[in-house]
Amino acid sequence: MNEQNSNQSPEMQRTPGVNPKLASLVTVLVAVVAFGGGWALGGDKSQIAPLLPAFVGGALTSNDQPPADVDFTPVWKAWNVLDDKFVPAALGTTSDATTTPQDKVWGMIEGMAASLGDP
């Protein structure tokens, strides 16, 4: 058997390792399980929805009320002052300098996250 291996070119010699058929079978099984799991979970969201808050730490729960111990008056004062007094730097240019209320909301969220000092 060594004579046959030594007569073959180096690229024709097989190196010991993973059986390619086994690797293909495992790959197909993983793909089928992943697809089936995604399809099963995506098909009936009523079973998943109650579990989501446990996985994301309550981040997706509907808590529309602001904390009782936080005074948001300065936020709304600043909002109103900006609405009344802010003049965009690009007012005399042709660029679009409009800021929507939603842009301001996202800016507040970014500022709140930045205030924690966690990149």
As for the number of domains, it is 2
Termini separation comes to 62 Å
Put simply, the count of helices is 6
Order of helices and strands: HHHHHH
How much of the sequence is in beta strands? under 5%
Please give the number of β-strands. Answer: 0
Provide the residue-averaged pLDDT: 75
Provide the low-confidence segments as ranges: none
Give helix % range.
Answer: 55-70%
Q: Which shape, going by the Cα principal axes? A: elongated
Q: Which structural class best describes the helix and strand composition?
A: mainly alpha
Q: Roughly how many Å is the radius of gyration?
A: 30 Å
For the report, how would you describe the main beta sheet?
none
What do you see in this structure?
The chain has helices at 2-7, 20-43, 45-48, 52-56, 73-85, 101-114. With 119 residues, it is mostly helical. It has 2 domains: 18-62; 73-114, no CATH class. The chain is elongated, with a radius of gyration of 30 Å. The mean pLDDT is 75. The chain crosses the membrane at residues 22-42. Keywords: Membrane, Transmembrane, Transmembrane helix.
